[in-house]
Amino acid sequence: AEPGPGPGSPLGRMGGESSPGGGRRVFSPAAEFREFSRRQLRDMERLFRQYDAGKDGFIDLMELKLMMEKLGAPQTHLGLKNMIKEVDEDLDSKLSFREFLLIFRKAAAGELQEDSGLHALARLSEIDVSTEGVKGAKNFFEAKAQAINEASRFEEEIKAEQEEKKKQAEELKQRKAAFKELQSTFKQ
């Protein structure tokens, strides 16, 4: 059991995000972004926090500019604005952690254009967004269940064989006893 994210982190913060309807709602990355493992979410959070220079829980245009330069894919001012616009659901012209996660969701779903800044961000961030983790875990547990079933079937076969051997040994014993009895009657 690994410790969860701290209260100051975007993953651990219980304060909701502003929604377009104006109300606040609690955002739980693990609940909403189920296609990603906890490890993937932590990696994305680490990346988000690394570039949230203002530590305000958002990546603004200048922070995104710096991020893209550090990742080796500098963007024009217009390019950066378009990147934000593509996932900026609340239209505040900056990326919340939830909107940041949308980049990786779109990347995993193949919804980002090859030449887009967001595609470059997702690809260069070295966060593996393949959802094989979830499928892999499912396959692992299915294989484990199958192995357990096979093992128990194997054990049942062994028990059946042992029962059969006991039965044969008992029959042999009875036959020997019967033969000795028969032999003793002939000797008299």
Automatic annotation (TrEMBL):
Residues 13-24 have a biased composition (Gly residues). One of its GO terms (molecular function) is calcium ion binding. Residues 1-29 are annotated as: Disordered. Residues 144-182 form a coiled coil. Residues 39-74, 75-110 form the EF-hand domain. Keywords: Calcium, Coiled coil, Metal-binding, Repeat. It holds the Pfam family AIF-1. It comes from the Eukaryota. This is EFHD2 protein. The gene is Efhd2.
